[in-house]
Design brief:
The chain is an alpha+beta fold. About 35% of the residues lie in helices and about 20% in strands. Helix 2 runs antiparallel to helix 3. The structure holds 2-(butylsulfanyl)adenosine.
Length: about 650
């Protein structure tokens, strides 16, 4: 895409803008500035190798925005500033695809692929055919039209012939270029097909956020991607961290005065050309083979390693490489004859919904859990599936006794895809959500904006146990050996009532416990001892403050010197901390206003748990209090993740301690 010389020049230009430019006053300069920002986006979102620090990017972007404000006549539709969405989309317009968005024929084994290869050879009369094999992305199909080097339209697949115009949402996907020098290949207009995806990591992070906000998590990355494309608030789309792979050119118009570009005569060549223009394609994963046996081998290899992919793939797509030959083979009304999907073994199975159990979490959330007839899917037996909340039961139209379809996709926890109401016999029973806590009997409460019913009894036994389990868990204090089962056992024996009791365990009495040897005791003692010096953010996360997930806990820890600081931090000061909004700030303050919290922290301190921030602090000097700063952040993996949620923020220093 960019030669080394070009990259060096752009970096040099960028540094000059950052160091010397307070404003830009020529058309040439603003064009260079746009090119630099496009380059920065490409390094980050397409090439996955960012070059600029957040603060540098922010400074360049601001310079461009300020310049465009001063000279609105210089704003172009492909300017990086034009990704920013304003307002809500009323309704998605229906638009016609230039070419129908066909689906692919499926194959399931080597014999199917050999059959298809035979047919291709028969139809074309050729003895050998070159095939490309690439991943079949499990996301949402998208169609893009570029005209005169500018992204004109993005649309969903819809009913194959027509889809929804989602141009504004498409522009929120940073790996999709707003403009590309297609004219370099004499292309006047092009329709490109691809798949919008969420990496497994982005999906996990997004779900963690939803759970922290008491919202229902999304079932799988595929649903998350297709749902995201139809969100009416485009700025919300931007926050999802969507990605797009472009894998097929469905229509191409070349300048009639100029020759057809040879690069676009093969599928492989087309993808290579698209990559060179800044598009993200399957190129790095593609394999070109001369025989169907090699194709089959590649499909098997990818199937065996599918879990290693950063995103979900549900099969492979095999395409005839020569575009002219593709035209000879043609298509049916449903699918092209020149391509076929090889579907990986299903990760689905059918089962029966036997009953619903209700689990009470550490924040009192009452989660319905479906107990199902055990079903064996891809090496794992599943007998229990979380349904998250009452709405999911309604959405999936579930009844006790229903036949259900269960899916287990990669890292994603198993979920119920659907029920089959048509198979009901009349013996099924309605699911009645409880009105009282199944553990302590207290009434349940659900704020209107939330999906989760909650037990309001702070000392509910289930909550107490879950709080201890959470505190000891791997991502919190990481007390190895003190897992779910042991905590329950210790609680049952009345040796542990709350978090602080972890540090007062009567090890002498524990000795007599069934299945409990000297070795496990020593290990547990050591793990508990080790936890006393865990960094502050782990304690903050372990305390289970509502809405405070790992990322917020880290930001919170960075901004204080001792946990006791939080007893006196105002809501406004809390809101100045990265990731902390009104709701989170109120929750933190509420937590630290409880007498129980004070008592717990005193007990932890007495037990020798370090409550101080022992990690290097970002706080600079007392004299800087109240001033606003650019905090410079370098590219750690975490910074990379943060970046997709918004660029570096200005921070006001609100507290200072030596
Ligand atoms: S090529 C003319 N390549 O799978 C057909 N499709 O049922 C052009 N898909 O609708 C499609 N990965 O949404 C193609 N590498 C890939 C793909 C892919 C996923 C989707 C696409 C299509 C569906 C097939």
């Amino acid at each position: 895409m960019y030669s080394t010389a070009q990259q060096n020049q752009l970096i040099k230009d960028a540094k000059a803008f950052i160091q010397h430019s307070t404003s830009v006053d020529s058309l040439t300069a603003i064009n260079i500035l746009k090119e630099i920002i496009n380059f920065a986006d490409w390094t980050y979102y397409v090439n996955d190798n960012p070059i600029f620090a957040d603060a540098e990017y922010d400074a360049l972007f601001k310079l461009l925005k300020d310049t465009e404000q001063k000279y609105p006549e210089w704003i172009t539709i492909d300017s990086p500033t034009q990704r920013i969405a304003k307002g809500l989309t009323e309704d998605f317009k229906t638009v016609s695809h230039l070419v129908p968005m066909l689906s692919l024929e499926n194959s399931y084994d080597a014999a199917d692929l050999q059959d298809w290869d035979r047919k291709c050879k028969e139809l074309s009369g050729l003895p050998t055919i070159e095939y490309c094999v690439e991943p079949k992305y499990d996301g949402a199909g998208i169609s893009l039209i570029y005209e005169k080097d500018i992204l004109e339209r993005g649309s969903t697949r819809g009913d194959i012939v027509q889809g929804d115009d989602i141009t504004t949402n498409t522009k929120q996907i940073r790996s999709i270029p707003l403009g590309a020098k297609l004219s370099r290949f004499n292309i006047q207009q092009i329709e490109i097909r691809g798949e919008v995806m969420l990496t497994k990591k982005a999906f996990r992070q997004y779900n963690e956020k939803l759970i922290a906000e008491n919202l229902s998590p999304l079932a799988n990355p595929r649903n998350a991607a297709s749902g995201s494309l139809r969100i009416k608030n485009a700025s919300e789309v931007a926050k999802r961290g969507l990605d797009a792979f472009l894998y097929h050119i469905s229509n191409i118009s070349i300048d009639p005065q100029k020759p057809f570009p040879t690069e676009f005569q093969t599928h492989f060549g087309s993808l290579k050309a698209l990559e060179s223009l800044g598009f993200k394609t399957p190129l790095s994963t593609i394999r070109v083979h001369a025989t169907i046996e090699e194709v089959i081998q590649t499909c098997m290899e990818y199937e065996a390693n599918r879990d290693q992919m950063p995103y979900e793939i549900d099969g492979m797509v095999i395409k005839v490489n020569d575009i002219a030959l593709q035209d000879v083979l043609g298509q049916t009304s449903h699918h092209p004859r020149w391509a076929i999907a090889y579907k990986f073994k299903a990760r689905q199975g059918s089962s029966k919904l036997l009953q619903i159990e209700y689990q009470v979490g550490r924040t009192g959330s009452v989660t319905p859990v479906a107990k199902i007839e055990p079903v064996y899917i891809d090496g794992v037996t599943i007998s229990s599936i979380s349904l998250f909340n009452e709405e999911v039961i309604r959405e999936k139209n579930l009844k006790i006794g229903d036949t259900i379809l269960v899916e287990r996709a990669g890292d994603v926890i198993p979920y119920i895809v659907k029920s089959f109401p048509e198979l009901r016999t009349g013996a099924e029973n309605e699911i009645v959500f409880p009105t009282k806590c199944p553990v302590c009997g207290e009434g349940l409460y659900k704020p209107e904006s939330e999906a989760v019913w909650r037990c309001t009894h702070i000392n509910c036994e289930a909550q107490r146990i879950e709080r201890i389990i959470h505190f000891a868990s791997k991502d919190a204090m990481d007390i190895r050996g003190l897992g779910d089962a042991l905590v329950r056992k210790l609680y049952e024996k009345k040796w542990i009532h709350g978090i602080a009791d972890i540090y007062k365990l009567p090890f002498e009495q524990l000795k007599g416990m069934e299945g409990w040897g000297e070795k496990s005791m020593t290990n547990l003692k050591e793990a508990i001892e080790k936890s006393k010096t865990q960094p502050l953010h782990r304690i903050l996360f372990g305390l289970g403050i509502r809405y405070v997930g790992e990322t917020t806990a880290k930001a919170l820890a960075r901004s204080i010197a001792h946990i006791n600081d939080l007893f006196s931090t105002s809501i406004d000061a809390l809101k100045n901390i990265e990731d902390v909004g009104e709701k989170v700030a109120v929750s933190i303050q509420e937590f630290f206003s409880h007498q129980d919290t004070k008592l717990l922290l005193e007990q932890l301190q007495d037990a020798g748990v370090c409550l101080q921030n022992t990690q290097k602090n970002e706080v600079v000097a007392g004299a800087l209090l109240g001033k606003t700063f650019f905090i410079y952040r370098y590219f750690t993996n975490e910074a990379k993740r943060c970046r997709s949620n918004g660029r570096t923020k200005r921070r006001k220093i609100t507290q200072w301690r030596q």
